[in-house]
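Predict the assembly for these two chains.
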Amino acid sequence: MLNSKIPAGPLDLKWTDYKGHCKLVNPANKRKLEVIIIGTGLAGASAAASLGELGYKVKAFCFQDSPRRAHSIAAQGGINAAKNYQNDGDSTFRLFYDTIKGGDYRAREANVHRLAEVSASIIDQCVAQGVPFAREYGGLLSNRSFGGTQVQRTFYAAGQTGQQLLIGAYQALERQVALGNVTQYTRHEMLDVVLIRDKDKNGNEIGEPKCRGIIVRNLITGELERHFGHAVLLCSGGYGNVFYLSTNAMGSNVTAAWKAHRKGAYFGNPCYTQIHPTCIPVSGDHQSKLTLMSESLRNDGRIWVPQKQNDNRKPNEIPEEERDYYLERRYRAFGNLVPRDVASRAAKERCDAGYGVGSSKQAVYLDFAAAIVRYGKIECGKLGINNPSAEVIRKHGVDVVKEKYGNLFDMYEKITGENPYEVPMRIYPAVHYTMGGLWVDYELMTTVPGLYALGEANFSDHGANRLGASALMQGLADGYFVIPYTIGNYLADEIATKAISLDDPAFVAAEKAVSDRIEKLMSIKGTQSVESLHKRLGKIMWEKCGMARNEKGLKEAIVEIQQLKKEFWSDVRIPGGINEMNPELDKANRVADFIELGELMCKDALNRSESCGGHFREESQDEDGEAKRDDAHFQYVSAWEFKGESDWQLHKEELNFEVAKPTQRSYK
Amino acid sequence: MEHYTMNLTLKVWRQKNSSDKGKFETYQVSDISSEMSFLEMFDVLNERLIKEGKEPIAFDHDCREGICGMCSMYINGRPHGPWQANTTCQLHMRAYKDGDTIVVEPWRANAFPVIKDLVVDRRAFDNIVQAGGFISVNTGNAVDANAMPIEKDKADAAFAAAACIGCGACVAACKNSSAMLFLSAKVSHLALLPQGEPERKSRVLKMVQQMDKEGFGACTFTEACEAVCPKEISVTNISRLNKEYLVAGLTEDKG
């Protein structure tokens, strides 16, 4: 039975009440308690720094060569916080409500409210650390608006907000390393968790198995290492790379979370994937990753396709009346600023119907011509230029657009070789974020005692669709302000637990299992590269478990993935050796887990025959093709328990909405 | 942009591990699309090497969008290749034409030992940050974010310095393997902000000391670092660092 451990009482007092009553660990005992943290992105670095400051003995692991490289670094847009500095009516409640609604009523109210409550403290903390947020001329912080909200609550540092926040957390982490509170292990990858049951006075095992450590592989030497911890925190990010092509970093993977899942941690809502509408389209088979163009571009750019199918004319040759501004046509109220899931599906619908552009026909135009003219006219007015020529207007307009979006336009030009000031950009949706993740309770603990999941690695706060600028908020909320309290509630009962010997049979067995699997992978010596198998998995997932899903496709995908799994384990070729740096082996370990995850995602998508947020089931749509939720049957979190190969059991956590009453989202 | 394909000769540094001597290997690659990124060209070559039963080339990379700072190739004598304000992962093959020869090496610096092929160990940068590249404020200690207004110009300058991605191109480009641009960017970021004031002097002294300990060379201000920096970090930060160091050295009394 799932126990989400949501505190009793009114929604807005739950967290205050929890903090007032949770157990505490005194400083002398904190020094004896060891905490392992996997991943050093916003969630991991902030947790490692904060727990180190509290006096716990922390070990922080990352697979990159430095904690500062975790993929949080690539977040562009901003971080939300209910500061109401703009006096525009924002409040904790409104941030809570927007997040619940944006998530299409598939998130837990208590968690989301807590997130909104701590959001303001995050900004304070970051500014104190020296994060250089954008400021106004008066010296105060600047805000901008983002999708799905009507207030300006997004704090930002140009288009590099994630980078600046991560560097803030990284510096706090390095300070703890220098102080000796945190030990840092770079180029190390977690390959299993170790579960051990407590023993009574007579040495008999009692209670449920608890997470007591990890097995990691040193990626430079290939050696396996055992590490003990009284608790283990997985802050290992999302699993978008199951699709092969995504905006995630090449190394982003599900392995840590998946190992935990196989050892008993339930996986929550695996099928909830965010497909971001404005990415640079695929250019060919060689493509290794996709690049996101910030959502902020939709403030000024207009999205269109030709009205004629298979129109091969150049965009500038297509006259205004032969263009279809389909978002403005379909969604009058929100136009080009509809939420991400809606914008993505609309682009796919047009391309599937034969209106796509570019050589692949899998793209739509994002056009700044109108914005350039609009801004140009305003500038000419300011400068007192009467009857400016089209050329003069354009010149001034380009300057304004450059000022606002210059770095994004440059990025586009570097990748495509096209000048977006001259021709409209071509964009297409791409996998960007995964709302699903390890199931956690209110304290961020998984179904395995002592094993926690923070940030994108857990399922908890974004429901079926995440709003822009909320991922950074959640990662830092979990690490700076939630886990320092909730972990104490668990560790207070562990103060008598001595460090368990690394020769304990559980450690020996876990290491052996990891070692056996590596040996097995290396001994296959087949004919297909890891990359080629990963690409095939991605293709199955994208076509059948991507932006639109249906029963037939999902059933086919499950069979195809099972087949692919067999092929992988009988025909993969991994060059090199075990006891050395071997990036192909690292990849193989990750892709093997992605294959298993892919199957579960399809199973989850098949089970959830409603449409909600980023999960669109073709069977569940209204007459206009809009997503139709089914609260009567699906107002629950799907928490999957691993039972064996290709075998899972579904547990349901019912969602109760006491404050934010579910309504059908409409953006028309 | 007209799309074309090309055949290239690659001379790539191969080194089995840190104790191996290492040498250049030559590879012919064909049918490379001008639309590929430089690292995708390496992906294609590696796929071929795997098929041929050879070991692929190890290289560092992660975000592939120019922000994580992991990629680190020294291409035809220039860190990150020929484009301005660019990382290796953002370099695209239309920078080259059919028949070109491209020489690819790892970063070369005593403080960045080679781990394998094109992969180097940049932990020295983390060590420099540990020496003082932070503001000592524990979680929960902060006052309201708007309690202390900061001049926009200063905040912008701090941001420009904080944009450093820690890739190490500055070190690789420098004939002395100096880390002054990296270090000065961090010192500037924190010295320009009022929050950094309390530790301003001790920070710069400790960080410079650590930089020397790591084995980076001295700065002779050739500005090669700025020329190759993917984030266009300015050498004026080095001037600021020198000033900070001088003032701290003359007035710091904590020893």
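Chain B has a mean pLDDT of 96. Chain B has eight helices and seven strands.
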